Automatic annotation (TrEMBL):
Pfam family, one: GFO_IDH_MocA
Domain GFO/IDH/MocA-like oxidoreductase: 135-258
Record keyword NAD present: yes
Gene3D superfamilies, A to Z: Dihydrodipicolinate Reductase, domain 2 (3.30.360.10), NAD(P)-binding Rossmann-like Domain (3.40.50.720)
Keyword line: NAD
Keyword Manganese listed: no
Top-rank lineage group of the source organism: Bacteria
Identification of the protein by name: Gfo/Idh/MocA family oxidoreductase
């Protein structure tokens, strides 16, 4: 039996709590969270208390001084991913890095290089890659049984506003990154082809009422993506959607169609006679829609630490970030943008420059 893995959890916010719970409550036979890192002491201590984690640190550097780990799970705001991933990888540790991988492609390349040099595994937090229905659809598409993908329609609607940093394109690349990068990863995975161009259009329906004042904020998005294979895709996003968390994909192929996801767990469809109302249960959050996938994702991390192949890694993370950047440029410029425009070594997203300067 392999020795229990020691995991350092970096970030004690929404996702840090979710992954800590998966490891401590479901995977305790394989691993333990042995340190929690968060500059917000109160948040870190509360999480540590809830799951009996003894070491609480305010920085990853402090955690590395105080303990020995087998892997690091990074669940912090996107603008911190690059520096934290480089620190963890330089310490020779396996890393699970939440999506989106980083703020731009230059940062993604540096993280990729650091993982290669360290000879450790880097897994990206696209949990749909670990969801049974999504995996079944990908395998069906790969089998060729229903032909080649012609059009892929993917949507994600988030229930409520994410944390403030995630609403601001300067610190997160906005909703396309924070909500819809899951779709960008899925369409590329299902198309099994490289994306060529993206054209995104956005609207802001609820921002003013919810007190969101960040420049370029949008809560509604529609993007079209073309692939080298000739497949077309659409990505739709709404956040806050208020009615629940909604993640669905439909792929029409040359020989059939496959659909993944539903608005709720199913099993109950109410059609009261007389008023023609149709109501059904909906998922409240990504936490319940993908509850099993999040546990599978942490289990997969433990497996890659034992030498299993990485199922969603640096190349996938970089591809999604490239689409996020091209899509954001498309929104700002009001034109279709080729992915190649944002992947050159000199491309600096103009909307990130001021925030990066303020942080340095
Ligand atoms: N896979 C998913 O389904 C999913 C869902 C939501 C968010 N996310 C991603 O997870 C990441 C975190 O999102 P969240 O919603 O948990 O954010 P959050 O704001 O709830 O939590 C982030 C935490 O990180 C802490 N933090 C900030 N800088 C830090 C640092 N240098 N070291 C350690 N901790 C630091 C903050 O104090 C905060 O407690 C983001 O990249 C986001 O895109 C993924």
């Amino acid at each position: 039996m392999s020795v229990s893995k020691r995991i350092c959890m970096v970030g004690a916010g929404r996702v840090g709590r979710l992954h800590t719970r998966s490891i401590m409550e479901r995977l305790g036979h394989r691993a333990r969270v042995t340190a929690i890192v968060d500059p917000s002491r109160e948040v870190a201590e509360e999480l540590a208390r809830d799951y009996g984690v003894e070491v609480v640190c305010s920085s990853l550097e402090e955690a590395l001084e105080r303990g020995v780990y087998d892997g690091v799970v990074i669940t912090t705001p996107t603008f911190t991913h690059h520096a934290l991933a480089l620190t963890a990888l330089a310490a020779g540790l396996h890393v699970h890095l939440e999506k989106p991988m980083a703020m731009n492609v230059v940062e993604c390349r540096e993280i990729t290089g650091a993982a290669e040099r360290a000879g450790v595994a880097l897994q990206l937090g696209y949990m749909r890659r670990f969801d049974r229905n999504f995996v079944d659809a990908a395998e069906l598409l790969r089998s060729g049984e229903i032909g080649d993908p012609m059009i892929i329609k993917s949507l994600t609607h988030g229930p409520g506003l994410p944390p403030a940093w995630a609403n601001d394109i300067r610190t997160s690349n906005g909703m396309l990154a924070e909500v819809n990068s899951h779709d960008l990863d899925t369409i590329s995975w299902f198309a099994a082809s490289e994306p060529v161009e993206i054209h995104a259009t956005v609207a802001n329906h609820k921002g003013a009422d919810r007190g969101v004042t960040s420049e370029h904020f949008y809560d509604t998005l529609l993007a079209t993506v073309t692939f080298e294979s000739g497949a077309l895709a659409s990505v739709a996003g709404v956040c806050p959607a208020d009615y629940g968390y909604d993640a669905r994909v439909e792929v029409t192929c040359t020989g059939g169609m496959v659909q993944v996801g539903d608005t709720g767990p199913g099993g109950l469809s109410v059609l009261p006679a007389g008023n023609h109302q149709h109501s059904r249960p909906v998922f409240r959050s990504w936490r319940d829609r993908f509850a099993d996938a999040y546990v599978e994702e942490m289990l997969a991390l433990l497996d890659v630490m034992d030498g299993a192949p990485v199922r969603v890694g640096a190349a996938d993370g970089t591809r999604a970030v490239a689409l996020v950047l091209a899509g954001t440029l498309s929104i700002l410029d009001g034109r279709p943008v080729r992915v190649a425009e944002v992947t050159g070594p000199d491309f600096v997203p103009s909307w990130q420059a001021a925030a990066a300067e303020a942080r340095s």
